[in-house]
Amino acid sequence: MKRMVLAACLASLAALPAAASSGDAWQEFAADVQAKCLAASKDLLEDAKAVVDPTGSEHFGLAIMTGKAKGTDTAVSHICVYDKKSKAVELGSELSADTVKVEMPGSTKP
Q1: Would you write out the chain's pLDDT as a tens digit for each of its 110 residues?
Q2: 1 assigned to some structural domain
Q3: In a domain, 26, yes or no
Q4: Cα dihedral sign for 105, 107, 109, 110?
Q5: Number of domain units in the chain
Q6: Domain residue limits at 66
Q7: Distance of alpha carbon 56 from alpha carbon 68, whole angstroms
Q8: Would you say 50 and 59 are in contact if contact means Cβ atoms under 8 Å apart?
């Protein structure tokens, strides 16, 4: 009996590296979070851009959406939460530039 338990433990340990996410899988995940968050923000933001947490939390993908509030010249941000299980997204309320400052990668300061 002890040998069967030991064999089962060793077999499960051998499978762990295969279960770990690859770099490509994380890139696909981040791209899906970005696409879904951008789609969710289209009615709220003009020229929306996303900064995506590359791996998110245990249960959620996370992104900060930034752009101009629809119909204004006011820069605002929204936090986007992506449920890893259902792949549904939700946006938080509008955050003014006074509340949160987001610099997009590759952008230059004025």
Answers
A1: 444 433 444 444 444 344 456 889 999 999 999 999 999 999 999 999 999 999 999 999 999 999 999 999 999 999 999 999 999 999 999 999 888 887 777 765 54
A2: no
A3: yes
A4: negative
A5: 1
A6: 20-96
A7: 25
A8: no
Residue 70 lies in a domain: yes
Does the residue 45 lie in any domain?
A: yes
Q: pTM here?
A: 0.74
Whether 76 and 64 have beta carbons less than 8 Å apart is answered as no
Structure tokens at 57: 């939390």
* Whether the Cβ atoms of residue 52 and residue 61 lie closer than 8 Å to each other: yes
How far apart CA 12 and CA 8 sit, in angstroms, is 6
74, amino acid identity:
T
Read off the DSSP letter of residue 106: T
User: What's the chain's Rg over C-alpha atoms?
Assistant: 20
Cα distances (angstroms) measured from residue 31 to each of 4, 11, 13, 15, 41:
43, 33, 30, 27, 15
